Amino acid sequence: MVKIKSFVFVIALSLMVCGVAVGSQLSLHDKIGDLNQLANFIKDNYAPIDQKRILYGADIDQLLNRYLSYLPLIKSDEEFYYLVARFEGEFHDMHLMIFAPVYRSANLGFTADLIEGKIFIDKIDRAILSKNVFPFSHGDEIISFDGHPVSEELKSLKGFRGRENPRTEDRSAAFALTDRLGTLVPLPVEKEARLEIRPKRSRTLSKVSVRWNFESMTSNSPRSKRTCTGKSQIKIPENSTMVEDTPFIAYYHPTPKGNVGYLKIGHFMPEEIEKIDSKIWLEKYKEALQVLNKKTNALIVDESGNCGGDGNLLLQIIEMFLNRPVKNPWIARLRAAPLTLKMLKKTLQDEIGENPNSPNIPTIQAEIDVTENSIRAGDLLTPAITFWGPASLQPKSFYNKPIMILINEMAGSAGDLFPALMQDLGRAKLIGSTTAGGGGGDLDYEKIELTHSHIKMDLINRMITYRANGRPLEDLGAQPDHPYSITTKDFLDGYREYRKFYVQKLIGEL
Q1: Nearest of 269, 275, 224, 138 to residue 410 by alpha carbon
Q2: Which of 95, 400, 406, 442 could form a disulfide with 461 if both were Cys (CB 3.0 to 4.6 A apart)?
Q3: Which residues pair with 112 in a beta bridge?
Q4: Contact at 8 Å (CB) between 91 and 58?
């Protein structure tokens, strides 16, 4: 049975990349060496290795043996790259990041999204696709892709980047349907994609062929403009007063119980996303919150699609909402490994060099001490300890009124942590769908490169964050107090029904 499964698996992979690579430069010995190198690195450094085995059956030794059995069937280097990506995907972890050395991308000139099990056209770049060439619009449904149901194409894309939350994995595959990065998924073989599309308010299917636009990439994984953004998909009410429109959206509008505000927090990495200094970014949030505190009775914080970022900025944003000192709630267990210790010591040196009086220094030193003790004891993980920041958070009280936070499955890493901590502190209730479940992270970007294939690992999950109730944030995510699933009507109509729902919940707190 193993041979049959191996054959089917590799044939499917081969069909996705055939015609892309010519021949193979890697020997079977090279491939075996690289896969063993990767597996050993994960064994030695990966924090949730037991948790993933229990939840997903991702036993590292069994996986390694199974994937080694596939190698004799691999015919090209690129097939090997994406086989390794599949191996990484078995752990369902957004912080286990493998990048193939394929620095090309391909897009169809429009984006797609997954709503209620259907694939819809989202945004169209009319500079690439004129209306004469592509007479479709936002909300038209894609029925088939290259001659088979579009669901089959999604299924073929899913396994390359495993995610903790199945909904995150599904939507990520939908994004990759029309916009593919060679570092992450195989690029299309054909020059054109053949689509069947059902326009809105029509029962008739239209067939169209769209050319793939192939481009060179300058980095491993450009941040998604659809998730890591301070902009909002939710239509702004006509009677709103704008407070800020760049680099994030903030406004307020009247309701039967007075004004309520809206504030978007799309990430915690302004210098990477918007090329803006983090101090300026924080100052803009401070100013917006002070205006909203004067003008509103309650606030919606929208962190849907928040792709994470800097833990320092996350904690400083939380302090803006506090009206009393609290013990730092960011608790984690670290992988008790020599490389973890090495990175902690480097982090301490960097912190001292930047600011000898930094409140982070005692926290990092305590982590070094517990990691050393855990290594000596032969433990897999350290005891739970404050992961980052000062021992206590201080109230800035820039906004001290009721808050609700909008969350969804595309909010991950610090995008998981922010709503979870605000919920645990009793400072906010959550609305929407469970976050991505990327409740781990790395201490630093310690990169490795596999010896023969030059596949890169940019991150590995070296810690597991825990909630106030003792449950891990990894895999479970932050869960809503008021669940809401986005509907097709929301997608087509500027999310008005969603806005009505969360405003009613918010003013119900007044």
Answers
A1: 224
A2: 95
A3: 121
A4: yes
Of residues 132, 129, 126, 115, the one with CA closest to residue 200: 115
Alpha-carbon distance of 315 to 328, in angstroms, equals 9
Residue 243 in contact with residue 235, Cβ under 8 Å?
Answer: no
Closest alpha carbon to 170 in 407, 410, 9, 406:
410
Cis bond upstream, residue 247 (ω within 30): yes
Mean pLDDT of 229-236: 95
- State the alpha helices, DSSP H only, in 90-188: 150-158, 166-178
Amino acid letter, 263: L
pLDDT, tens only, 130-142? 999 999 999 999 9
DSSP-derived secondary structure for 230-287? S--SSPPPTT-EEEE-SSS-EEEE--TTS-EEEEE---B-HHHHT---HHHHHHHHHH
> How high is the pLDDT of residue 446?
64
pTM, two decimal places? 0.93
What gap in Å lies between CA 310 and CA 308, rounded to an integer?
A: 7
Distances (CA, A) of 198 to 105, 178, 195, 343: 27, 17, 10, 53
User: Is 304:407 a contact under the CB 8 Å cutoff?
Assistant: yes
Please check the confidence at residue 81 and state whether its pLDDT lies above 50: yes
**For the stretch 446-468, what's the b/e string if a residue is b when 16 or more beta carbons lie within 10 angstroms of its beta carbon?**
beeebebbebbbbbbbbbbbbbe
d(CA 100, CA 197): 32
Q: Would the pLDDT of 91 be above 60?
A: yes
- Output Rg (C-alpha) for the chain, integer angstroms: 24
Q: Tokens standing for 199?
A: 């326009």
Please tell me whether residue 75 adopts helix, strand or coil conformation: coil
Backbone angles phi, psi at 342, to 5 degrees: -60, -45
